[in-house]
Amino acid sequence: xxxxxxxxxxxxxxxxxxxxxxxxxxxxxxxxxxxxxxxxxxxxxxxxxxxxxxxxxxxxxxxxxxxxxxxxxxxxxxxxxxxxxxxxxxxxxxxxxxxxxxxxxxxxxxxxxxxxxxxxxxxxxxxxxxxxxxxxxxxxxxxxxxxxxxxxxxxxxxxxxxxxxxxxxxxxxxxxxxxxxxxxxxxxxxxxxxxxxxxxxxxxxxxxxxxxxxxxxxxxxxxxxxxxxxxxxxxxxxxxxxxxxxxxxxxxxxxxxxxxxxxxxxxxxxxxxxxxxxxxxxxxxxxx
Length: 288
Prior knowledge:
This is RTA1 like protein-domain-containing protein. The chain is mostly helical. It has one domain: Up-down Bundle (Rhopdopsin 7-helix transmembrane proteins), CATH 1.20.1070.10. Helices cover 74% and strands 0% of the residues. Helix 2 (43-64) runs antiparallel to helix 3 and helix 5 (144-181) runs antiparallel to helix 7. The longest helix is centred in the middle third of the chain and has 38 residues, at 144-181. It is globular and about 65 Å long.
């Protein structure tokens, strides 16, 4: 493809190194927290941190090659920074399902908890393969048509992520509203700060949503768009937001609510007492 360039600017080595260090620190801290608290369900989040770390390490390598960039560092940094947030999303989906079971509030959910995590993870998997497949096509594009195809596939993957995240936020809001109106016995009895965990889910979901919309606009504009012409956007609307997501779960780790003991009932297939409680109250909340 005539005139094709990996970057439309000289990538900043300093910025790449700073974010590589930040994500490496976050990765090490999350590994420590997972090992200490045995929150194995949060493992995909660590993989996401590793993707972000590796992405900015290889971006630093690529920046050092300016202006004679080579393909492999460019491809690796593109794919890893594109896919890292998808793994963050997977972990957030799993937290909500466990939180609902922990609060014995199964009947509050629009989607049965046994299907909730599976439903959103399916969307996440589709998004992952869409973005990964499109990134692979785009990274090796040699013609205008193949570049256009790669952009469209990535856009499809990002659109799936935005749609499922929108649904996830709605489900979370409905659960939150219903449990505030008619608390389950467990939500009243537990000293665990589950309300704070819900607000962390809102914040991190909102940040990932902003990032995904930014990426959608970026790829929709194409190589001549203003977002791909200015590196600042990528750091402010992607790198910074995703680091804040990792930091949120460092300062308020899910284990503060969903520790090993609290999720034993879910691992054993416990269905919770939420249905019986709500039936006795006559709330009649509908579920699918």
